[in-house]
Automatic annotation (TrEMBL):
PANTHER family: DIGUANYLATE CYCLASE DGCM-RELATED, REGULATORY COMPONENTS OF SENSORY TRANSDUCTION SYSTEM. Keywords: Membrane, Transmembrane, Transmembrane helix. Pfam families: GGDEF. The keyword Iron does not apply. It catalyses: 2 GTP = 3',3'-c-di-GMP + 2 diphosphate. The chain crosses the membrane at residues 29-52, 58-78, 115-132, 139-156, 176-196. This is diguanylate cyclase. Coiled coil: none annotated. Its EC number is 2.7.7.65. Residues 248-380 form the GGDEF domain. CDD domains: GGDEF. It comes from Curvibacter cyanobacteriorum. InterPro entries: Diguanylate_Cyclase (IPR050469), GGDEF_dom (IPR000160), Nucleotide_cyclase (IPR029787), Rev_trsase/Diguanyl_cyclase (IPR043128).
Amino acid sequence: MSTVLESGAKHARSGALPAPWEGGHRTRLTMLVAVGVSYALDAVFLACFWWLGRIELSLPLLYVAAGLGHILLFTLAFRIGDARGQRDLLLTEWQMAAAIAVQLGAVLLAPWIKAYFLCIIFVVFAFGTLSLSVRRALLMWLGTCAMTALTLQWLPSQHTVPVSIPANAREAVLVGVAYASILLRCLLLNHYGTLLRTRLIQRQRKLTEEVEAVHRLASHDLLTGALNRHAMLPLLEGQIQLVQRGRQVCALALIDLDHFKRVNDNHGHLTGDQVLCRVVDTMAATLRPSDKLARYGGEEFLLLMPATTLAEAEVVLERVRAAVALQHWQDLVPGWPITLSAGITNVHPSDRLDDVLARADTSLYQAKNGGRNRCVSLPWQ
Ligand SMILES: Nc1nc2c(ncn2[C@@H]2O[C@H](COP(=O)(O)OP(=O)(O)OP(=O)(O)O)[C@@H](O)[C@H]2O)c(=O)[nH]1
């Protein structure tokens, strides 16, 4: 999970939106393959225009060289960037600038089919801006508009109208197919956008689950699933504050299993663990949802009972004690009774956390000394 968080922070620093796909080598490879295929497709169409006698052979050849140059240049740039800890995974703006420069160069070399290259700029732009922040996309847009205007300005006047009139039927078909291919790439782009959105949603869901799991790990005991001490103490503090503000009453119990060491010694630590889990399940089944049960130490538990008087807590603990004592233990510890002792107290407005815990501890001590398998309550006085 830390990788995800680090990558999020990295993109936040760079100003780029986090790339929703998995980062690293594979993403770049996919990107360069897509760029290569796009250049190759355009080169094929240019070769057809050459075949029809509309352009020089040098243009498709130059186009192929530009495609190869793009791939080589960015393969190298990624390596150097990695070594320097570059933040933008795909060097998006640089890749866009390079691809757009190639198209504008082609407009200058073959102005009669310039609409084709201008459409490709649209594809490059739509693709690149998928991973740019709004500010950077706007800057890219301004730069692209300016460079395109300058390039068109440079052309002889008969070429400034961005419409080409096909000379014959074959050329009309070729122009049609070329434009169909651009439209198809737009379609693929849309599909890609949908894919990214889906992955983003999946990643978000996974992240939420991971955060929830981390929260759960931080606040619950791994063995029994009860709250842990770390999570319980703030709850108790909160209840003490409510009592101090006169908003409610609250009771607390410290619960300890009797002679648990003997369970471990006679039946093994693993059985001891199973007993602990079953004790927690048994106790939880007898409690209200508002009661909070935490594993306070090895075989010691803290039970917080909000909106409960001492007298009510005594009833609750007697129910808990009886439930554990009467639980079916034969399968785990044959012939061995599992019982608990509990020390109960109530929270007084003048109490601090330590006072309440000390009182619960004293009453638990009394329960143990009184013969175990019993509950003793010690009110504030
Ligand atoms: N199986 C298991 N045992 C644990 C765990 N945590 C603590 N214990 C054991 O619990 C036992 C507690 O023993 P003691 O503190 O002597 O208390 P006791 O034997 O229950 O005796 P009294 O509390 O006086 O009734 C020790 O043997 C610990 O090793 C745990 O997670 N799993």
